[in-house]
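Figure 3 (text version): structure tokens given as input.
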């Protein structure tokens, strides 16, 4: 248990949710929902604070990255970035459409399936509060794992709500809200496999991870020390769900991904299971453009209110069946 867990008594989750679907669903991976491409530059906040003052800590100075976001009351919440969203009349959000129970299209729905899930509920709540109306217009844009940061930096989206872990390296490239979910990396493998977890049993095993993911970074850093050098980590795919398909096809022996996503995959496919305990402590946050300090503060204020009741309601709807009762949203500290 790390220092933060001792300090805040947060839970350690053993799993995450990603949808195990038939390969035919791959045909919709590339489909993007309607989105307005044109937008103004994120720019600095209207309160006069420059990026150096208002942006979050750089990775080299970073300790407890989940605690590096701006407090809601640290400055204006209605600057140029929030005003631009109001003027456009919609919020553009990067999401996943293949992560079961977080952001996905239900294959059992008839016709054009609506996006559903825990992340989708949060994105809608943020839009409702910023735009001041129930069921406010949200332009969801489906993006792969490795496009989350570029999409924010290019201004393709106002924010990303897509099981995105807050970490020190990413704080160099984007800003994050306070954490809204806790998880950790785990190994997913066939039940019949002799793999026991993130350990020596991965020797000579083919391991899949998603490009731009924490899992991929960990595998590179740990190969030859925590896990055997003989572990083959060369299978790197754009989307985390692609790893499950590779596992089902027998092209890899194991998947390393967020435990929460892996748990839902195991629930969908009775032939696979989580192996070992989570080997990291991680927190999901809403990612936004650096320097958009008014928007960061506004989202953090929305999260303060969202955690009081709506968080648990959404959790019960989407995740309790896979992850159990849980202990509620993670505790929050600000920069």
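Below: residues designed for each position.
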């Amino acid at each position: 248990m790390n220092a933060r867990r001792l300090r805040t008594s947060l839970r350690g989750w053993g799993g995450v949710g990603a949808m195990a679907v038939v390969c035919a669903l791959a045909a919709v991976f590339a489909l993007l929902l309607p989105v307005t491409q044109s937008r103004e530059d994120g720019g600095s906040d209207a309160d006069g604070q420059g990026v150096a003052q208002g942006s979050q800590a750089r990775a080299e100075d970073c300790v407890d990255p989940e605690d590096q976001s701006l407090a809601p009351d640290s400055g204006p919440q209605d600057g140029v970035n929030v005003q631009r969203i109001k003027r456009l009349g919609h919020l553009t959000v990067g999401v996943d459409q293949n992560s079961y129970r977080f952001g996905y299209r239900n294959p059992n729905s008839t016709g054009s399936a609506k996006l559903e899930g825990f992340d989708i509920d949060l994105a809608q709540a943020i839009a409702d509060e910023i735009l001041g109306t129930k069921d406010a217009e949200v332009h969801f844009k489906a993006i792969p794992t490795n496009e989350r940061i570029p999409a924010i930096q290019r201004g393709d989206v106002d924010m990303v709500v897509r099981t995105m872990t807050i970490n020190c390296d990413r704080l160099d490239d984007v800003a994050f809200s306070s954490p809204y979910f806790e998880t950790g990396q785990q190994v997913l493998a066939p039940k019949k496999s002799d793999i026991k977890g993130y350990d020596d049993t991965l020797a000579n095993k083919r391991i899949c991870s998603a490009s731009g993911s924490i899992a991929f970074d960990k595998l590179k850093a740990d190969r030859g020390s925590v896990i055997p050098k003989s572990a083959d980590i060369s299978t790197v795919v754009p989307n985390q769900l692609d790893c499950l398909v590779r596992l089902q096809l027998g092209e890899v022996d194991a998947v390393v991904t967020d435990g929460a996503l892996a748990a839902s995959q195991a629930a969908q496919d009775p032939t696979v299971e989580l192996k070992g305990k989570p080997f990291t402590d991680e927190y999901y946050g809403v990612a936004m453009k650096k320097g958009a300090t008014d928007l960061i503060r506004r989202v953090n204020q929305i999260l303060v209110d969202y955690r009081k009741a709506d968080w648990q309601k959404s959790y019960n709807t989407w995740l309790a069946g896979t992850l159990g009762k849980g202990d509620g949203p993670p505790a929050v500290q600000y920069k």
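The CA atoms of residues 197 and 276 lie 4 Å apart.
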